Amino acid sequence: MTRVYIVDDQPMVRAGISMLLAGEDDLEVLGEAGSADDAIAEIRRLRPDVVLMDVRMPGTDGVSATRELVSDVGASPDQIIRVLIMTTFDDEDVVVRALQAGASGYLLKHASPTEIADAVRRVAAGDTWLDARAAARIVERLRPRTAVSRDISALLTPREQDVLRMVAAGLTNQEIRVRLNLSEATVKTHVARILLKTGSRDRAGAVALAYRSGFAQPDDPIPGTD
């Protein structure tokens, strides 16, 4: 059962999405809130699998709330809070900031019921979900224009840096999972976020960027090695 928490300042939106998800046998709505300020403490207590987070709300906005929730991973690497951003705005700047803050995906509120449910399932499984109509533009915006000058350490969390170093060393997701004692879904989530934050098309692009920028060196020790 995938457990979901909904954060949106519009009661009708919350009710509609809650009713939609409640009709799915494998999805459960744990709770909902009208603001990020009201939601953060309860989300930390309930530990849902996926948080559906509105972007534009009074008080703490969805991007800031996402950053705060995802930062909890540092203490519990295997208990990632996955956030799926929701918006009615086709606003690339906001989406880019949300992804860079650690969101696992981006969904338009007017998406079909099937698409919303599928997005929740995919994100819960550790995948990344981008609205198909915006994906190409978002990835292009995230791609560094001058890769060598990018400070990767400033873009990635400490755990994401460890994972990128392992990817650069040629380790598979399974090998990374064993070394860091994580689930495979968690490793996939970290890799997806690395690609999004660095604007890399694939693992090879992320590795090339890591070496070109000086973030990784051929003789670097592999994290997790005793």
TrEMBL record:
Every copy of the HTH luxR-type domain together lies at 149-214
Tell me if Phosphoprotein is a UniProt keyword of this record: yes
Question: For the Response regulatory domain, which residue ranges apply?
Answer: 3-124
Keyword annotations from UniProtKB, A to Z: DNA-binding, Phosphoprotein, Transcription, Transcription regulation
Under the heading InterPro entries, the entry gives: CheY-like_superfamily, NreC/VraR/RcsB-like_REC, Sig_transdc_resp-reg_C-effctor, Sig_transdc_resp-reg_receiver, Tscrpt_reg_LuxR_C, WalR-like
* Pfam families according to UniProt: GerE (PF00196), Response_reg (PF00072)
Say which domain of life the source belongs to: Bacteria
Q: According to the UniProt record, list the residues that bear 4-aspartylphosphate.
A: 54
Does the UniProt entry include the keyword Phosphoprotein?
yes
Q: Where are the transmembrane segments?
A: none
Q: What is this protein called?
A: Response regulator transcription factor
What species was this sequence derived from?
A: Brachybacterium huguangmaarense
